[in-house]
Known about the structure:
The chain is an alpha/beta fold. It has eleven helices and 13 strands. It has a six-stranded mixed sheet, with helices on both faces. It has a four-stranded antiparallel sheet with strand order 11-12-10-13, covered by helices on one side. Strands 2-1-4 form a three-stranded antiparallel sheet, with helices on one face.
Amino acid sequence: MIQARGLRKTFGSGEAVFEAVKGIDLDVHRGEAFGFLGPNGAGKSSTMRMIAAVSPVSAGELRILGLDPATDGPAIRARLGVCPQEDTLDSELNVRDNLVIYARYFGIGRADARARADELLELVNLTEKAKAKVDDLSGGMKRRLTIARSLVNRPDLLLLDEPTTGLDPQARHVLWDQLFRLKQQGVTLVITTHYMDEAEQLCDRLVVMDKGLVAAEGSPAELIRDHSSREVAELRFGLGDGSANPHEEHAARVAELGDRVEVLPDRLLVYGTDGDAVLEAVHELGLRPVATLVRRSTLEDVFLRLTGRTLVD
């Protein structure tokens, strides 16, 4: 569905040139959910815009649905569905007409457009809101309507840019279920998200991007296996008189208890295969953390290890 080799995207020229994507290779297969993770400025949005055939490739090779976006842009866009990060619904139209009018842009006849709108409203559980104004919908309902709109042309490839940003947990889980059902129906999904649990739930494979490059690629389980550990023991010590970080002081003492130790301002993370055994060994050393937690490693551990913990604006 998507094949990229040495894909690059640059902006500006001369001394002011900026390279947002620095030569990445990608393969997205039919029927899978493929994810892009990365901090702000990693190159995710630039890559997605090239895949959507709305931003020209600066260098390298890109094929979407077997077509070249440089020469076959309209044909590619006709077979894509795009769910942007921001809702761009028409507030002057009711819910059903947002779908009917959008379907007409793809040359779908009036009768078929109305039938498709009703079908999609049922898919996203908005049938009862068909005549409601967009402004009267909740945030979760607007996102579901935006996803429904992206499906009016029965796309082969659905691009979703942070589809659940700003939604409460209940609305996120409803959307996850609907996206999972779409994948079961054979729709190929390409997703960018900042939610690690969302990536674990939805993505068959994903890439972690950083500074315009692919830092790692694989399934969520493969990435956790290759870049983290099975479990993490979190240790929190009292801050004492505030003159020094006690977690830095204790890090050397627990360094041998796991595969890797990470010092944070408020806690120590000990990565290993058995978190409970780490806690027992910590107590045998005579250390008494004020709070402890044992959890499994997640994609967030992988993400932060690959891209760092420094805040990126």
